[in-house]
TrEMBL record:
It comes from Crocuta crocuta. This is Tumor necrosis factor-inducible gene 6 protein. Keywords: Cell adhesion, Disulfide bond, Hydrolase, Signal. One of its GO terms (biological process) is negative regulation of inflammatory response. Residues 1-17 form the signal peptide. The keyword Cell division does not apply. Residues 135-247 form the CUB domain.
Length: 277
C-alpha cells in the first residue's frame, strides 16, 4: 500500500507539470529549455556558417549548439523559423509550427536534414543558452514589453535577434514603439528593425525601421508576428522598447490598408503594409 501511494505521488508530480497553454500541450521542462534556444545567422545573411563557425558563434555568447530535443522543445511552444541551421553533433534542421508550401514542405515538426558528413556546408545556427542576454524570444502572453539587448544601455555590434509573437486564434497584435534609437542610415542598411506579419521573416514583410523617430503603431492581420533586429559591426545607439497587446479582430472598415510606403524613421523608403489605431 505504501508503495502504491509513493508511485501515485510521483505520477501526480509528473502530470502536474503537463498542461495546455495557448492551445499547445507542453511540460514545464520544455518551457525552461525553450527559453534558451535561439536562432543565429551570419551578419552577411542566411546560410553562411560552417559547423565550426556556428559552434563558435554559440560558444562566444556563452552557450552551445542546441540539441535536437532542445529545438523540438522550443518548437512545442511556438518557435518557428524558416531557416535550416546547425545543431549539436553536426545535425541540421529547422522548427516548423505552421505548415506551408514554401517552408517545411507542408509539414510540421523539426525538418531534419540529418547529421551532415560535410561540416563545411553553410547553414545558420541554433544555439542554447538559458542565461544569455535577452536577444529574441517566443512570446505568447496577451501583452508584453520587450527591449533591445542591454537596454537602456546601448546595444552591441553584430546583433541578430528574432522575436516571435504567437497569440490565440482570432486575436490580433497591436504593436507600439515606446523608445526607438538606432543608427541613422539613409538606406537603413546598418542597424534596423524589420517587422513581418507572419510566422517568420520570409513572408508578410511590413517594413524596415531605423533612425531615432518613433515608428507609428502597427496592427497585425492575424495572431502572429515576427520582428528582427540587426546591428552591423560599427556605431551603436540607445536601442528600443516595444510594447504589444492582444486585440479583438477589427471591423472590415478599420482593417489594414495597402500602402506604397513605410516610414523608416522620418524616411519613406520601403513598400509594405501597415495599419493604425
Amino acid at each position: 500500500m505504501i508503495i502504491l501511494i509513493y508511485l501515485f505521488v510521483l505520477l501526480w508530480e509528473e502530470a502536474h507539470g503537463w498542461g495546455f497553454k495557448n492551445g499547445i500541450f507542453h511540460n514545464s521542462i520544455w518551457l525552461e529549455q525553450a527559453a534558451g534556444v535561439y536562432h543565429r545567422e551570419a551578419r552577411s545573411g542566411k546560410y553562411k556558417l560552417t559547423y565550426a563557425e556556428a559552434k563558435a558563434v554559440c560558444e562566444y555568447e556563452g552557450g552551445q549548439l542546441a540539441t535536437y530535443k532542445q529545438l523540438e522543445a522550443a518548437r512545442k511552444i511556438g518557435f518557428h523559423v524558416c531557416a535550416a541551421g546547425w545543431m549539436a553533433k553536426g545535425r541540421v534542421g529547422y522548427p516548423i509550427v505552421k505548415p506551408g508550401p514554401n517552408c517545411g514542405f507542408g509539414k510540421t515538426g523539426i525538418i531534419d536534414y540529418g547529421v551532415r558528413l560535410n561540416r563545411s556546408e553553410r547553414w545558420d545556427a541554433y544555439c542554447y543558452n538559458p542565461h544569455a542576454k535577452e536577444c529574441g524570444g517566443v512570446f505568447t502572453e496577451s501583452k508584453r514589453i520587450f527591449k533591445s539587448p542591454g537596454f537602456p544601455n546601448e546595444y552591441d555590434d553584430n546583433q541578430v535577434c528574432y522575436w516571435h509573437i504567437r497569440l490565440k486564434y482570432g486575436q490580433r497584435i497591436h504593436l507600439s514603439f515606446l523608445d526607438f534609437d538606432l543608427e541613422d542610415d539613409p538606406a537603413c542598411l546598418a542597424d534596423y528593425v524589420e517587422i513581418y506579419d507572419s510566422y517568420d521573416d520570409v513572408h508578410g514583410f511590413v517594413g524596415r525601421y531605423c533612425g531615432d523617430e518613433l515608428p507609428e503603431d502597427i496592427i497585425s492581420t492575424g495572431n502572429v508576428m515576427t520582428l528582427k533586429f540587426l546591428s552591423d559591426a560599427s556605431v551603436t545607439a540607445g536601442g528600443f522598447q516595444i510594447k504589444y497587446v492582444a486585440v479583438d479582430p477589427l471591423s472590415k472598415s478599420s482593417q489594414g490598408k495597402n500602402t506604397s510606403t513605410i516610414s523608416t524613421g522620418n524616411k519613406n523608403l520601403l513598400a509594405g503594409r501597415f495599419s493604425h489605431l
